[in-house]
Amino acid sequence: MTALRVEALEAGYEPGLPIVRGASLSVESNEILAVLGPNGAGKSTLIKAIAGLVPVSAGRVLLHDREITGRAAHRLPHEGLGFVPQTENVFVNLSIDDNLDLAASILKVPKKRRLDKLYALFPDLARQRRLLAGRLSGGQRQMLAVARALVGEPKVLMLDEPSAGLSPKLVGIVFEKLVEVRATGVTIVLVEQNVKAALAIADRAAVLVEGSTRIVGTARELAKDPQVAALYLGHYRGDT
Amino acid sequence: MLQLIADGFVIGSVIALGAIGVTLVYSILRFANFAHGELLTWGAYLAWTALLGFAAVWGPMEPLGPFSFGWTLLASLGVAAIATAALALLVDLLLFRQLRRHGSAITLIMASFGAALVLRNLLQFIFGAVPEYYSREIQVAIRLVPRDVLGGLRITPDQLFVLGLTAVSVVGLHLFLTRTTLGKAMRATSINPQLAQVTGIDVDRVVRATWIIGAVLAAVAGVFSGLTVQLRPQLGLDLLLPLFAAAILGGIGSVYGAVAGGLIVGLAESLSVPIVGAEYRAATAFIVLIAILLIRPTGLFGERP
Question: Residue A173 sits in a domain of what CATH number?
């Protein structure tokens, strides 16, 4: 079953100046889809447009066959779409507990049961739940951002460059955690610059160039495709 | 000395309630609203209008116990709070909301100056420039401390009412911000509006709540000012600088800072009167503001960037 489908989407910050130009992709349930592409390809704009943060001028977005195109950003978490922004993705003045508690209050989910589950999934966070989010390391902060987006038990979780600013070791830890999250039944859409790490955990990948989807294939195919690597993925080579 | 401190707390209560609105709007809407003082004036005059309306129906106000006012003033305060909140929402709808979409912070600030001028002149056009009073009852001050202890302390029941209701309002606001979902949503929005949205918070609802809370507290502060001093169209303009001094002193964006800042500014103004005279008391508040900001640039409760 298709969890998320994007059809010929056009979106941008200014009217008449679309950054995303006719992007299409579909994500099957319980799949990890990596959205790749060179700098300025419109990857972040695409994911923000799906999340309701960037105006959509054409095309459609369907979440489990229900149209959510242009819906206000605050409504989507209530409808099963979680989003982790690239930066400033936790409330730095609140503790870990308060970050999760706030999301639980807003999304009206049973707090204790949900937070216990999340702390079991993220034991690092459980150990320091009273610590201010602003004092967390980059990796821990990213874990908290993912945990916050999971509070509402989303069907689809979208992440905008979760590896940004992290050391290779931390990227590995965060991405392993995403695989664990997928194992709980969550579909994941991952916008990434770190092609190697993304393709290592993704089932399929879509390559975005100049705002439109150029190549879609399995992660294995794309990782081995030298043309793809040379054309769109910069320095990355599938065999490195 | 004790008398000056008590007077300072009464002045500080009015400033604190007004400064909460300034700081809330700044932290959530990210601009300094120079029209906030006018909400105090409108709140005070709307309560006066409601009071006249009640008097026309039920006759002149009978004082309630030791106070100079009766239950109709309390009812008028409720009416004024609702009407002032409606006025704030109307100004937001017609002006600030349009500019938030496309304008910068400086555009909003300049627009707030314009809104202040319109609101003040409209009020003066409707109500006139002559000072008014809620009640002309003479109140006997209660002696709380004998004269031979630090100069003694006398306070009127109305002033005690102002102090008590300010404390209740601040505690109520604290409980609202920390215990209710909307209060928590307001705190989250003030930290990071975009993250608040993707967490499921309706930021437009938070903005409406911000205007309503700021305006209700402004109306209460305006009525307190009218009750303890008098009603004048310049009331809000005269209080504007102390309101901003209090908000900045406490750490702009911090509700508790605004309360502390309000009380400090009130105390500084009051305690300076015997030294520099009433004409220069506003300047004293600013000297305190500068001194505190030199030591702690983010204000008393402000977060370091």
Answer: 3.40.50.300
